[in-house]
Write a structure and sequence with these properties.
It is built from 9 helices and 7 strands; from the N terminus they run ββαβαβααβαααβαβα. With 191 residues, the chain is of the alpha/beta class. It has 2 domains: 99 residues; 80 residues, no CATH class. It has a 4-stranded mixed beta sheet with strand order 1-3-2-4. A 3-stranded parallel beta sheet has the order 5-6-7. α8 links the parallel β6 and β7. The longest helix has 14 residues. It is globular, with a radius of gyration of 17 Å.
Length: 191
């Protein structure tokens, strides 16, 4: 099993079903691989780069160019571009991990909430700081993040390390979500 966020990994278990292909967001890939291996699902996991989220239209194109019967993406800002595929329900991975009702409540409680997942915590420097140019132009920080009032970390596998939250200087709330919702949703997509 590969821990690489992108690439193809084949996992076959004791099932006699023919293998299925799962095209997944790189941000979900490690969890999808772990769940498939643990459950013995005969799937090949093809991860697309998580940086595609910086331009959601590229998500739609990449998914359609890598046709797979199972799509481990929510809508992810494609505004229906992934509708018609056998995809995860919800607007984004936050819905996948915590559920749409919990996410709605988080934003009802404080609209100025910035959400993090384990993947975003681990790759914050690369995807956010470098991806938005904040490593080169730190003066843009307030333009991007000045309206946020708190950070909510939707933790799949909580660790004590969360350097990204310190950058914001805002209160941090950790919500332990695990991956059980993702696992149930993947199981529902399997043939």
């Amino acid at each position: 099993m590969s821990n690489s966020p992108t690439g193809e990994t084949s996992m076959t278990g004791s099932s006699s079903n023919s293998p299925s292909e799962v095209v997944t967001c790189g941000a979900l890939a490690a969890h999808v691989r772990e769940i498939a291996a643990r459950r013995g699902w005969p799937v090949t996991v093809r991860a697309l780069p998580a940086v595609l989220h910086n331009n959601p239209k590229l998500i739609e194109t990449a998914v359609r160019d890598a046709p797979a019967p199972i799509v481990a993406y929510a809508d992810c800002g494609t505004y229906g571009g992934l509708d018609g595929t056998n995809r995860l329900p919800g607007l984004h991975c936050y819905d996948v991990y915590a559920g749409p009702e919990a996410i709605r409540q988080i934003f009802d409680d404080e609209p100025g909430t910035y959400l993090l997942t384990d993947f975003l915590v681990r790759s914050f420097d690369r995807l956010v700081l470098a991806g938005l140019g904040l490593d080169r132009y730190p003066e843009l920080w307030d333009d991007y993040f000045g309206h946020y009032r708190r950070i909510v970390w939707l933790a799949q596998q909580p660790t004590a390390e969360l350097a990204a939250a310190g950058l914001f200087g805002l209160p941090l709330t950790r919500v332990d979500t695990g991956v059980s919702r993702l696992e149930r949703q993947l199981e529902a997509l399997l043939p």
